Amino acid sequence: MIKVLKPGFYSTIQDLGRIGFQQFGVPYSGVMDRKAATVANALLGNDESDAVIEMTMTGATFQFSTNTFIAISGADMSPKLNNQAIQCNKMVAVKFNDVLSFGKLNTGFRCYLAVLGGFNTEIVMNSKSMYKNITEQSVIKKDDDLMIFKDSITNISHHASIRFNTDYINSNIIEVHRGPEFYFLSENQQKALFATDFSISKDNNRMAYQMEETFQNNLKPIITSAVLPGTVQLTPSGKLIVLMRDCQTTGGYPRVLQLTESAINIIAQKFTGNTIRFKLIPQN
């Protein structure tokens, strides 16, 4: 079991998401940066779909009531075990009563904590991902007791030699495909999409990232249609909105671009004021 001493700014239990319920209006949810989360699990020999803790901007503080192993990946939040610095992207042994804490945010925005065997928490619609009105809690809270699989320590296999390139966290190139309404844009508008540096506005969260700059828009709204994480919508006011893991399942704004999976990982590590540039993937 792990006790939450401090929850951090916005920390949740997430896995790879809630698949197969979108026709009921249920978001996919799941980890914002799949690359980082799956690496953290791989370091421990976990299944890639095992639940992890996603921490945003500031880390949480945890006390362990059992011996286990952990791995931390994604944003560098200066992790410490019993006030001693530990490395990210490495398997770390944790003992009874050890305290894991985090400090200065050095790179990125979202950090992932994996524990050997994964978190044994509430499952709703085949997923442990927290989401308001779907799961009992939408974030972890102070004094929460988070269950883990106690017997998993006897089955550990060492994967600590995994090499993880974290350069993507600092990249600002967001690779995209054309969206369904891309060709409704004029040729000049299409060129401007890929020639402009867009900055992340203060309106960014697990549901969507809104860009600060206004993009010329004379398109009419569309009939409400399906959207996905990574869909880029163009609002009537000319704002670009990049939908993220907790996004709605349908929308009425033109869908001008669609991010690749790797691009979603990159933008998930951005915060207010960071700049990005869209890069179109050529069609075959």
Can you give a write-up of this model?
Keywords: ATP-binding, Hydrolase, Nucleotide-binding. This is Biotin-dependent carboxyltransferase family protein. Residues 23-284 form the Carboxyltransferase domain. It comes from Flaviramulus multivorans. The chain is mainly beta. The chain folds into two domains: 2-167, no CATH class; 171-280, Cyclophilin-like (Cyclophilin, Beta Barrel). It is built from three helices and 20 strands. The protein has helices at residues 34-44, 187-195, 261-268; strands at 2-6, 10-14, 52-56, 61-64, 68-76, 80-81, 84-85, 92-94, 99-101, 107-115, 145-146, 173-178, 198-204, 208-214, 225-226, 231-234, 239-243, 250-251, 255-259, 275-280. The strands form four sheets. The protein has a seven-stranded mixed beta barrel. Strands 7-6-9-4-1-11 form a six-stranded antiparallel β-sheet, with no helix packed on it. The protein has a five-stranded antiparallel β-sheet with strand order 2-3-10-5-8. A hairpin with a 4-residue loop joins strand 16 and strand 17 (239-243). The protein is elongated, with a radius of gyration of 20 Å. The model has no long low-confidence stretch (mean pLDDT 93).
Protein topology:
Blueprint: E1 2-6, E2 10-14, H1 34-44, E3 52-56, E4 61-64, E5 68-76, E6 80-81, E7 84-85, E8 92-94, E9 99-101, E10 107-115, E11 145-146, E12 173-178, H2 187-195, E13 198-204, E14 208-214, E15 225-226, E16 231-234, E17 239-243, E18 250-251, E19 255-259, H3 261-268, E20 275-280
Parallel strand pairs: 12-20
Antiparallel strand pairs: 1-4, 1-11, 2-3, 3-10, 4-9, 5-8, 5-10, 6-7, 6-9, 12-19, 13-14, 13-20, 14-17, 15-18, 16-17, 16-19
Keywords: ATP-binding, Hydrolase, Nucleotide-binding
InterPro entries: CT_A_B (IPR003778), Cyclophilin-like_dom_sf (IPR029000), PxpC (IPR052708)
Domain Carboxyltransferase: 23-284
